[in-house]
Design brief:
This protein is of the alpha/beta class. It contains 14 helices and 20 strands. It is globular, with a radius of gyration of 24 Å. The longest helix has 22 residues. The chain has 2 domains: 294 residues, 3-Layer(bba) Sandwich (FAD/NAD(P)-binding domain); 147 residues, Elongation Factor Tu (Ef-tu), domain 3. A hairpin with a 4-residue loop joins strand 7 and strand 8. The strands form 5 sheets. Strands 14-15-16-17-13-18 form a 6-stranded antiparallel beta sheet. It has a 5-stranded parallel beta sheet with strand order 9-5-4-11-20, covered by helices on one side. Helix 2 packs parallel to helix 13 and helix 3 packs across helix 4. Bound molecules: flavin-adenine dinucleotide. The site of flavin-adenine dinucleotide has 33 residues, from helix 1, strand 5, strand 10 and helix 11. Flavin-adenine dinucleotide binds next to helix 1, strand 5, strand 10 and helix 11.
């Protein structure tokens, strides 16, 4: 049995919602402010909804709780932190610390709630998870511009603008609709993440640059890979280490059936002594200039960013623990002092091939008005997801005000999130924010920590100017940061029309 609702299409008796036929203007009152639909009240959707409301937009926030939960959720509160209670490092010497400081200056509600519910955690920002979610839920439910609708969306439907922020465990029927829209091959259900190391931590005296049989049209293609050569003995030892390493156990809901094309390296090591040397560690066609011969095996590194500040270990997706990855991968010649910007991983993770499907404002290229935000775009982590929600809300808000948004500067961590979603379309994998997503440091030569701090200060200066250009109230980043988001309301054309 289905019933019709005023403006939002059909709902089955079991509460399943098909978002359909919703226009941005209310049918009864053409002067009422536009409605923005947000599906998913997690980190991204909650931030987006509060940002939009604070700028005067009406929001319909569709969340499947309490009718349904993802297998990782354990409460009915909105904006739930499903695992760790940490929003990670707070220092400006790490990229997520910079991202959080930018969010604070941009008036993020997630950061404000985190500040109000924080618990001691050394150099990290950790929160009391129940109080955090309770506070966000309270803000969302108290905001008169936000209508929280408890429904499981099964389709994107026709409502515009809409933000899809349903996260890494997007409910199946909605995921099927997304796959239909973007193409099944553009939607992944598991990630297969290879580690990334910083270029400056590679021992360049031990590695050589070459592509297999020097293939490639341009000289750049021919020098596309950095090769870490292993002797036969080093390779045999490496395989033994992989076999005995501690691995992360799959979650109860993860039915990990690996694709043959992206097996974890430890699974390949289990299959036979030579499996890896016929797979990602294949040495054929790679002549080491030091010996004039092909090595016993090779670990190939591929440049991750245009400036060559970071390299990924090609084909090295893995479920080994981070500690084991650091220990074992540092036995690879050339990587003895490797700084890991990202560790390898494989989890259940619904995400779209953002570089293929989305433009730089997280809008579906083939369907203007449909935006994606949070982990489903291939960013990773609570903080990154909330920042993605802020960005999507900002882009929509600017467009509803009749202006084309300017992207944040390339030096900022917010732009770094956009850069992440535009890179590597042929092998797109989720990532946390890293300094390799930001414009490289071009000032005086500095030690690593000083350089990261200098990059952060550069980002915050540039952010402030961008805020002015975008008509956002600049905040000194005080404890009342989000009050500035409310201050923005005064500048929005729809601010007084609610
Ligand atoms: C098991 C697990 C552990 C994790 N641990 C960590 C960690 O420790 N630290 C960290 O930083 N990140 C962790 N993550 C990643 C984390 O999930 C994300 O960083 C973050 O929650 C993503 O935010 P999001 O808003 O994109 O999605 P979510 O926070 O997952 O929010 C999505 C929301 O959409 C709702 N939803 C889904 N489908 C529908 C639908 N069809 N209709 C309506 N609502 C729907 C969900 O109920 C949910 O509330 C973990 C992920 C998993 C799966």
């Amino acid at each position: 049995m289905a019933r019709a609702t005023a403006a939002f299409g059909l709902y089955s008796a079991r509460g399943v919602c098909i978002l359909r036929g919703v226009s941005t203007q209310s049918a009864s009152n053409p002067n009422s402010p536009p409605v923005v639909t947000v599906i998913g009240a997690g980190l991204a959707g909650s931030e987006a909804a509060l940002q939009l409301a604070s700028r005067g937009h009406r929001v319909r926030l569709v969340e499947q709780k309490p009718m349904a939960r993802t297998p990782a959720q354990s409460s009915d509160a909105l904006c739930e932190l499903v695992c760790s209670n940490s929003l990670r490092g707070a220092s400006l010497m790490n990229a997520v610390g910079l991202l959080k400081e930018e969010m604070r200056r941009l008036g993020s509600f997630v950061i404000r709630a985190a500040e109000q519910t924080k618990v001691p955690a050394g150099g990290a920002l950790a929160v009391d998870r129940e109080r955090f979610s309770a506070l966000m839920t309270e803000w969302l439910r108290a905001e008169p511009r936000i209508e929280v609708v408890s429904e499981a969306a099964t389709e994107i439907g026709d409502a515009r603008p809409i933000i899809v922020a349903t996260g890494p465990l997007t409910a199946e029927r909605l995921a099927a609709d997304i796959a239909r829209r973007v193409g099944a091959e553009q939607l992944a259900y598991y990630d297969a993440i290879a580690p990334i190391v910083s270029a400056e931590s590679i021992d360049w005296s031990k590695v050589f640059v070459a592509s297999r049989y020097d293939k490639g049209e341009s000289e750049r293609d021919q020098r596309a890979y950095v090769n870490c050569p292993l002797t036969k003995e080093q390779y045999a030892q490496f395989v033994q280490e992989l076999r005995s390493a501690t691995k992360v156990a799959p979650k109860a809901f993860e039915d990990v059936r690996y694709f043959e094309g992206c097996l974890p390296i430890e699974v390949m090591a289990e299959r036979g002594d030579r499996t890896l040397s016929f797979g990602p560690m294949k040495p054929v066609g790679l002549t080491d200039p030091k010996t004039g011969r092909w090595p016993g095996a090779v670990v190939q590194l591929r440049q991750e960013d245009e400036a060559g500040t970071a390299y990924n270990l090609v084909g090295f997706q893995t479920r080994m623990t981070w500690g084991e990855q650091a220990r074992i991968f540092r036995t690879i010649p050339g990587l003895e002092s490797a700084e890991f910007l990202r560790y390898g991983a494989i989890h259940r993770n619904t995400f779209i091939n953002a570089p293929r499907c989305l433009d730089e404002t997280f809008q579906l290229r083939q369907a203007p008005g449909v935006y994606f935000a949070g982990q489903i775009t291939g960013t990773e982590g609570y903080v990154e997801s909330a920042a993605g929600g802020w960005l999507a809300a900002h882009f929509i808000s600017r467009r509803l005000a009749g202006a084309e948004p300017e992207l944040p500067p390339l030096t900022t961590a917010h732009r770094g999130l956009i850069v992440q979603t535009q890179r590597n379309p042929d092998d797109y994998q989720p990532s946390n924010i890293t300094f390799a997503h930001l414009a490289p440091w071009d000032g005086a030569r500095l030690q690593k920590r000083a350089k990261y701090e200098a990059m952060s200060h550069r980002a915050l200066d540039d952010l402030q100017q961008w805020q002015r250009r975008e008509g956002l109230a600049a905040s000194a980043g005080g404890p009342d940061g989000p009050a500035d988001a409310h201050a923005n309301r005064a500048m929005m054309p729809s601010a007084n029309s609610h």
